[in-house]
Specification:
With 338 residues, this protein is of the alpha/beta class. It has two domains: 196 residues, D-Maltodextrin-Binding Protein, domain 2, CATH 3.40.190; 92 residues, D-Maltodextrin-Binding Protein, domain 2 (3-Layer(aba) Sandwich). The protein contains 14 helices and ten strands.
């Protein structure tokens, strides 16, 4: 019996592999994913957890896209990478949004993940630092970058002086040896490190609670991409917001996301990540303000206008900019991922 005969006979008996019998129109097709790239502003950490959760839980793929998530670092200028077209989107903030307006660059903000800026002022345990008014007369360790962002706002509001300032180069040592010093930091990171060094929880005030209304961990994108691929960008935003909602719940459901974070940044530990997630929730960094009713990532015309006015009042931003050019509300405020 020839091989050809055996094959024909098996086909007649229905024994040939199923794909040979399925009409072409009914065969399953491999999903083609559209690719987008997003650059964070620093090394992988819990403050980026929503993006890692959306990857780990398949939220991007479920919406037909693949995200190339690129961690930042001290030697990377991600703003320049966006301007040069080397990345589709970057993690940004309110100040950079107005830089685009001032420079007439064709970029803007499409979502604000952090409703509150997570920067804090940190003092030694038992030093009596329980209000911003108690900064007066004490040495303040503030970085050069922060001297042109939140510092002018605090200086005017609380009648402080530049004479109080001391250099801060992201080294805890000067703070640790001076029990009267106050140091800037992030509630999700430096607070943890200082608590470990002192063996006690430091006293902490969130700068946003002083009325500093900047959005943080925003998403910046070119106007061209947002317009030409609006449906795709909406899918990216929706998956990201869902990822953040899941990540903030913590527990076993985010273990895969945390594993990805630790893979990208081995310096992250389970304790450090847990501290960050706890603080993000406790301080309302993601879920507060407009996000409570309009969903994670929410923004408002009023909030943008208020921030701009507060920064022009202290000469941080120039007067006369068109505030509405800094952002669009097209992709957020849909009441999802609260």
């Amino acid at each position: 019996m020839t091989a050809a005969f055996r094959l024909d006979r098996r086909a007649a008996l229905g024994l040939v592999a199923a794909p040979l019998l399925v009409p072409l129109s009914r065969r399953p097709r491999a999903q083609t994913l559209e690719r987008l790239s997003f650059h964070t502003d620093w090394r992988a950490q819990a403050e980026h957890g929503g993006y890692y959760q959306a990857i780990a839980a398949g939220l991007y793929k479920a919406r037909g896209l693949e995200l190339d998530l690129r961690p930042g670092g001290p030697s990377l200028n991600i703003g320049q990478m966006l301007l040069a077209g080397r990345v589709d989107m970057i993690m940004s903030n309110s100040f950079e949004a107005f830089t685009y307006v001032r420079e007439q660059a064709p970029f803007f903000t499409i979502a604000a993940i952090f409703q509150k800026d997570p920067q804090v002022l940190i003092a030694h345990p038992g030093s009596g630092f329980d209000s911003f008014e108690k900064m007066k007369g004490r040495p303040l360790l503030i970085s050069n970058g922060s001297r042109s962002t939140f510092w002018p706002y605090l200086r005017k509001k609380y009648d402080l002086t530049d004479a109080q300032l001391r250099p801060y180069n992201f080294n805890m040592a000067p703070f640790l040896v001076d029990p009267q010093a106050i140091q800037q930091g992030f509630v999700t990171s430096e607070v943890y490190s200082i608590a470990q060094a002192l063996g006690k929880q430091p006293e902490v005030l969130l700068i946003a609670d002083a009325g500093f209304s900047a959005y943080q961990t925003t998403i910046a994108i070119s106007r061209k991409l947002a317009s030409e691929k609006k449906v795709l960008i909406q899918r990216f935003v929706d998956a990201t917001l869902e990822g953040w909602a899941q990540y903030l719940e913590g527990g076993p459901a985010i273990e895969a996301a945390n594993a990805l974070i630790k893979k990208d940044n081995p310096e992250q530990t389970d304790d450090r990540i847990q501290h960050a997630v706890r603080e993000l929730n406790a301080r309302g960094i993601v879920r507060s303000g407009d996000a409570l009713t309009s969903g994670i990532g929410a923004m408002s015309d009023g909030r943008w206008a208020d921030f701009y006015a507060s920064m022009t009042d202290v000469d941080v931003l120039p007067a006369g900019l068109d505030v509405r050019q800094a952002y669009t509300l097209d992709f957020v405020n849909k009441g999802t991922a609260k």
